[in-house]
Structure formats: C-alpha cells, structure tokens
Amino acid sequence: MIINGLLCALASILVNGVDRVLAWQTFTRPIVTAPITGLLLGDLTTGIIMGASLEAIFMGISAIGGSIPADATAASIVAVAMTILTGADVETGLALAMPIGTIMATVNELWKPVLCSFAPYWEHLAEEGKVSTLRWQSIFCGIFLDKLPAHLIMFIAVAFGIEGLESVINTLPAWVMSGFSAASGMMTAVGFAILGSMIWSGEVGGFFFVGFVLAKFLNMGTLPIAIILAVVAVMYFLNDKKILDAKNEAMAAAGSSSGTSGNDSEDFF
Amino acid sequence: MLKFDYNDTEKKTLRKMYWNSGLVFCSFNQVKMEANAFCLTMAPALDELYSDPKERNLALKRHDNFFNTHAVLFAFIAGIAYALEKDKMTKGGVDDDTIESIKVALMGPTAGIGDAFFFNCVRVIAAGIGIGLCTTGNILGTLLFVLLYGGSQLVARYYLLRMGYSMGTSFIDSLFGTGLMQSLTKSASILGIGMVGAMVATMVNVKLSLPISVGDTSVELFSIIDSIMPGLASVALFFYLMHLIKKGVRPIYLVIGILVAAIAISFIGSLLGA
C-alpha cells in the first residue's frame, strides 16, 4: 500500500504542478485527474469512467473568488484509488469523493496562513532584483509547497486508510479551525491596505465607499461596479480635459493677439 | 487600428513575458495573491527598459504589489503595463502611480470577464463534450477537454498579452502631449480605489465570534458590529492596516499579528461561549 500511496501523491503533484506552471485549471479537474490516477494505479478505464461522473458531480462547484467549498482534485484521486485498490464498486468510490473533498478544503484553508507567511520573503526577492531565484522558487512552491498538505494526505490516506485522517481532523479543537479560517479571511485585507495606501488621496478616497456599498449592500458583481465607476472616471477626465482645453485656448488667444494674426491656427468655428 | 508588428527586442520580451505569465498560481497567497507572477511577468520588460539596476529593482518591487485577476486576462494587463513602463522610460509621460492605478482599475472587470467566459462557458462546454465520451471509457473525452479548455487558455493568453501591449501603446500615444496624463491618473485612481472598496466588501471576511455575557443573556460582539453596518469590521480592519502601513509597519508583522489575534479571539470566544 505504501507504493500506491506514493503513486497517489505523485498524481497529486503532477496534476497540481502542470496547472500551476501553465496557469491552467485544467489538469486539476476530475475529468483529467481521475484518468491520470487510474493510469498510475494500472486501471485507466475505471479512471476515465469515474472521471466523467466526478466531473459531473463537481462541475457546479466553482472556485470564483478564491474560496473552494470542496477540493475536487483530492476527492477524485482518493475516490479512484479506493475503487481500484479495494475493489469497491464505482458508486462507493464516488460516495467517498464528497466527504474527502470537504475535508481537504478545510485542510487547504489551514495551509493558507502558512503560504501567506512567505509573502514578505517574495517581496524581499523582488526588491533585491533576484528574478531568477524568484522564478525557480515560485515554480518549486507551486509544484510542491502550494498543495503540500494535499500531497501528504493523499499518501497517508491511501497508504493507511481514510479513517485515520478523519480522526486527526476531529481531534483538533474547534477554536483552532475557526481561528485559522478567520485569519485567512482577514489576511486579504493586508494586500488591499498596501494597495490602498498607494492610490489613496483625499480627492478620490470617497470612491472607496462607493465601491464598498455597491458590492456589499447591492450585491453587485465587479463588472457592473467597474462600469459605474468607469462612467464617473470618464466624466472626471472629460471635465478636466475641458478645463485644460479652455486654459490652452486662453493661452493661445493671448499668444496670437500679441504676435502674428491667427491664420495658421486651424479654427473650426 | 492596433499594430501587431514588433521589432526583435519587443518580440523577445513578449515571448519571455508569455512564459512567465503562466506562473500565476505558483506562489499564490492570500496576502498578495498573484503579485509574484505579475512581478515575474514584468521582469523581462523591466530588464529591457531599465538600464539602472537600482531603478529596475524599485520597479520590480512596485509590480510585486497585490494583484488578482483571471489567469488568462492577467496577460492583457501585463501587456498594458509593459506599454506604460516603456512610455515612462522613453517619453516620461506616465508615472509610477498611474501605472499602479491602471493595473488596479483593470483587475476587477477582467476577472469578471475571464470567469464568465472561461470558467462558466468554455469549461462547461468542454466538460460536457468530455463527459459524454468518458462515460464509455473513451480517453478521447479527457484529451478533448484538455485541448478545448486548456488549449483555448494558452492561445488566448498569447494574443491578449500582445493586444494589451499594442492597445497600451496606441492609447498612450494619443494622450501624450495633450497634458492629460495627470487627469488620466486621477480617473484611474477613482476606478482603482472604488474597485478596492468593492473587493474589500466581497473578499475580506472578519469571521470572528466573541460572545459577551450581559447578566443572564449573552450577546455576540461581531454580529452587533455587523448589524450596525454589514462589513463594518472589514472596513475598520482595512483602514487600521492602511494606517499601520503608512506608518511603516512591515506587512509580515501584520500577517503574524492577524493570525495570532484571530486564534486568540477564537480561543477566548470558545471559553466565553462554553
């Protein structure tokens, strides 16, 4: 079972790695993950057939906005592994998928603050201009570190069984879990604060609240909010342009009256 | 009309930028999200444009700021940023703040378009075709899915990077010399700061719970704050953090502080709630 555990961890590294390096969300979809797991474990056909069912199950679960309710990739790997290795029927394997996906989504949530702690290190590399270091370490991070808990758990789960995993999660006190998930929700504010401190000025600062209210109270999506703000921005811009044009015209008029006659200035009116 | 004929230097830079733009999710984290990938994508452009390594490093740091959008439309913004950086170096028409504001202003809308088009449209169509073939155990279903969903993203990213660069160049050229760059900066910051407000509303969650007992009844502190105004805690957190950053506190201390505070509050909350 150790070998099979390693193969499942390899499947996890492979699909996550390809997606990370190509900026895809393609290999981590069940329809690709399941056949790859099946291939590694020696039963491609089961993998393909389960891939179809798993993709249908997880299709509606979207990852928009960064929060994923269930980890479809991990769920697919474990479900396929269980079906092929224990000889269970496909339905049992599929029934396993959802709880695994939910557990893994929680584990991923716990891992996020750890990944956040790298942020200052990355910034330091950028500041020092160490681009090639930043590049290869980013790639390494994307392939191995980013989903490290998933890789490890794929190994443990397949090598030692799913029950052990559940009992570990259950022994964690509830406040640790809620603390971690609260922290990852608040850490996003650090990035926004850095951004805000760069573009904030008294003149435009009020529009922060316009955006906030439109999103929070009217539940508008980013695109309609952007359109509204763009209209305001264009109005500001055109207004400024008018003032500038008037200023230029006044200056040109002052210039031409003292100099030669306005023959060379192309006046439309 | 957009021009798509580039000289050899531009071609080389764009090609390098393309491969680096694939690293969007590599060192993704909740604090700065896709910042490292944007910094890496801009690195070949900055190498081309900046001769002074000190200035180049400052520019790299600038592009390592918070960034988040759809992985494919990402390249479009990088293309525009390349054009803006080039204009800054060759004509001095744009400044750092303008570049940053335009980046921020474009993040939200491009994310929306990308998710709607690739995630909710192309992916669903590709998966639909794939599932049909896969149920019969045909590997062609998987291959078609990769080709349609993955392939379309690669091709789109390639052209969007070039489109961003060409559009950025022609756009700036038409503005340059009219003295409107300052007005553009202001307009872009309006859009930018507004989008930051919208993103703070949707992406920053203060999910803490702290029951406070008043006599026999206990009240939930954070739900009271929320009932005054939904998201008030997020706004307060944002402004407090911004205040600290302006004072020069390093982001790592803020991250650690938030983690410690969240676990501590959650622990105290569990004691009070018991």
What does the model show?
The complex is a heterodimer of chains A (269) and B (274). With 269 residues, chain A is mostly helical. Chain A has twelve helices and no strands. Chain A has helices at 2-22, 30-41, 44-58, 72-86, 90-116, 119-128, 131-145, 148-160, 162-171, 174-199, 206-216, 222-258. In chain A, helix 1 runs antiparallel to helix 2, helix 2 packs antiparallel against helix 3 (44-58) and helix 2 (30-41) runs parallel beside helix 4 (72-86). The longest helix of chain A has 37 residues, at 222-258. With 274 residues, chain B is mainly alpha-helical. Chain B has two domains: 8-200, no CATH class; 204-273, no CATH class. Helix content of chain B is 73%, strand content 3%. Chain B has a two-stranded antiparallel sheet. In chain B, strand 1 and strand 2 form a beta hairpin. In chain B, helix 5 (96-134) packs across helix 7 (181-203). The radius of gyration of chain B is 23 Å and the shape is globular. The N and C termini of chain B lie far apart (68 Å). At the A-B interface, helix 1, helix 2, helix 3, helix 5 and helix 6 of A face helix 2, helix 3, helix 5, helix 6 and helix 7 of B.
Structural Rg of chain A: 28 Å
Give the distance, in angstroms, between the N- and C-terminal Cα atoms of chain A.
Answer: 87 Å
Low-confidence stretches of chain B: none
Mean pLDDT of chain A: 81
Strand order of the largest sheet of chain B: 1-2
Helix run count of chain B? 10
List SSEs of chain B in N-to-C order: HHHHHHHEEHHH
The backbone outline of chain A, from C-alpha atoms, is elongated
The oligomeric status of these chains comes to heterodimer
Spans of chain A with pLDDT under 50 lasting ≥5 residues? Answer: 62-67, 259-269
User: Helicity level of chain B, as a percent range?
Assistant: over 70%
